[in-house]
């Protein structure tokens, strides 16, 4: 069987990289936030939105010494936006109390001992009942009060109804809306289509706590990549509750989530997405294939292959479906005239609907080979258009 591949036209990537949204509700005792600092430093191209929470709020207009140290450290990184926590109690919070808390967070900007500035507010428990007008009134008042308190300081607003947005006005009132916040057992990729209105992916955020008892690291990566593929604005998968946000014991610690997202960040900044159309397949013609034996089957397979070259990265989008046949994807990169064969992958799957090659220098990718057994020829002929701004192929 023949294996042929075609590099199709380049598409401009719609570079809206998915940020890592982290409810960091732990008290910054010495060392507790260190895994977060490490992840920030290891991923300078990934933007972090980090929510600090002293005591279901700011607990005053001046940070205590532990928060001074912790927040100043967060603010020392150019890829971090620090947000303060306030809660709306689904519309039953007192507006006076809410605005007093927003003002307290704003006051952290003026603290003189260190840079404890707060660049945004996370409005937890946003009221979001279909058919009401009071929710919009409530949130309008809350945001106006916050903006007034922050004055000339920049203010990013995130609403957290944690579900599909029932009020179109929220897309205007807030910079981001959390359109899903629930445990991992309730999540599937269908949320990306059911809860995100057309054109709103970049303003949508997803938070999935309690992942440890449900998923594997590979699944976490797959979900994050699918989110990034549709251009979700900010996301996170956390192993436990937010008060254990820095735990590294589960399958999806912050280090893993950050590195899963950063691959897509790199892709977005590369400005070029080339699409491969797989015309036919055979393993016999595959030159320079470094086959990687299929590892165990993973239910949700979105395979990514990292290249050994900094110039190229390979991702197969969320475009593959389960079980067994295709065993390797290869790219060759020409770097300074010497081909560097780069392969990785894979878990096993039956159908490849597309392979996405993202490279900072498109000319260095000269061929892509998909090797498959005879059984997959037909399915490999399927070709789906894929780009970041589109829905994940199902
Ligand atoms: C305001 O902040 C205090 C102290 O952090 C907190 O106890 C209270 O629940 C907060 N209220 C609102 C409405 O955010
Ligand atoms: C404080 O940190 C924030 C966030 O990194 C930054 O935007 C701001 O410029 C810093 N302020 C000063 C005075 O350095």
Domains (count): 2
Q: What's the N-to-C terminus distance?
A: 27 Å
Proportion in β-strands: 25-35%
> Order of SSEs, N→C?
EEHEHEHEHEHEHEHEHEEEEEEEEEH
User: What CATH architecture label of the largest domain applies?
Assistant: Alpha-Beta Barrel
The secondary-structure class comes to: alpha/beta
Q: Looking at CATH, which topology of the largest domain would you report?
A: TIM Barrel
Approximate helicity band: 10-25%
Walk across the major sheet and give the strand order: 2-3-4-5-6-7-8-9
Shape: globular
Annotation field: number of helices? 9
Low-confidence stretches: 1-15, 267-394
Q: Could you explain the architecture of this structure?
A:
It is a single chain. This protein has 394 residues and is α/β, with parallel strands linked by helices. The chain folds into 2 domains: 19-268, Glycosidases (TIM Barrel), CATH 3.20.20.80; 270-381, no CATH class. The protein contains 9 helices and 18 strands. It has helices at 34-42, 65-75, 95-108, 134-150, 170-173, 191-194, 217-229, 254-269, 377-381; strands spanning 4-12, 19-24, 48-52, 80-87, 120-124, 156-160, 176-181, 204-208, 234-237, 272-280, 304-306, 312-315, 320-326, 328-335, 338-344, 349-352, 355-359, 365-371. Strands 2-3-4-5-6-7-8-9 form an 8-stranded parallel β-barrel, surrounded by 4 helices. The radius of gyration is 23 Å and the shape is globular. One 2-acetamido-2-deoxy-beta-D-glucopyranose is lined by residues 75, 115, 117. One 2-acetamido-2-deoxy-beta-D-glucopyranose binds next to loops.
């Amino acid at each position: 069987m023949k294996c042929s591949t075609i590099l199709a036209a380049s598409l401009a990537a719609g570079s809206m990289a998915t940020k890592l949204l982290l409810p960091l509700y732990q008290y910054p005792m010495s060392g507790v936030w260190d895994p977060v600092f490490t992840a920030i430093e290891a991923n300078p191209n990934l933007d972090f939105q980090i929510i600090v929470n002293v005591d279901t709020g700011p607990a005053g207009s001046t940070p205590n010494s532990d928060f001074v140290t912790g927040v100043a450290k967060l603010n020392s990184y150019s890829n971090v936006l620090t947000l303060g926590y306030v809660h709306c109690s689904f519309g039953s919070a007192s507006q006076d109390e809410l605005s007093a808390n927003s003002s307290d967070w704003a006051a952290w900007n003026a603290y003189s001992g260190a840079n404890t500035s707060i660049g945004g507010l996370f409005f937890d428990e946003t009221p979001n009942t279909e058919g009401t007008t009071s929710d919009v009134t409530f949130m309008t008042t809350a945001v106006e009060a916050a903006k007034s308190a922050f004055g000339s300081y920049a203010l990013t607003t995130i609403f957290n109804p944690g579900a599909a947005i029932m009020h179109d006005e929220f897309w205007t009132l807030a910079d981001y809306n959390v359109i899903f916040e629930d445990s991992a057992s309730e999540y599937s990729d269908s949320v990306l289509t059911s809860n995100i209105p057309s054109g709103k992916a970049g303003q949508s955020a997803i938070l999935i706590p309690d992942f440890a008892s449900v998923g594997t690291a590979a699944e976490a990566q797959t979900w994050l990549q699918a989110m990034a593929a549709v251009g979700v604005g900010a996301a996170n998968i956390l192993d436990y509750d937010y008060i254990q946000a820095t735990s590294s014991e589960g399958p999806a610690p912050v280090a893993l989530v950050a590195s899963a997202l950063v691959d897509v960040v790199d892709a977005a900044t590369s400005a070029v997405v080339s699409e491969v159309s797989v015309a036919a397949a055979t393993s016999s013609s595959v030159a320079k294939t470094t086959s990687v034996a299929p590892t165990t089957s993973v239910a949700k397979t979105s395979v990514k292959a990292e290249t050994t070259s900094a110039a190229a990265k390979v991702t197969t989008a969320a475009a593959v479906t389960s079980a067994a046949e295709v065993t390797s994807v290869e790219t060759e990169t020409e770097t300074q005239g010497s081909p560097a064969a780069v392969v990785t992958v894979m878990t096993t799957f039956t159908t490849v609907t597309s392979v996405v090659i993202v490279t900072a220098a498109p000319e260095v990718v000269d061929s892509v080979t998909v090797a498959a057994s005879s059984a997959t020829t037909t399915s490999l002929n399927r070709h789906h258009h894929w780009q970041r701004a589109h829905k994940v192929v199902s």
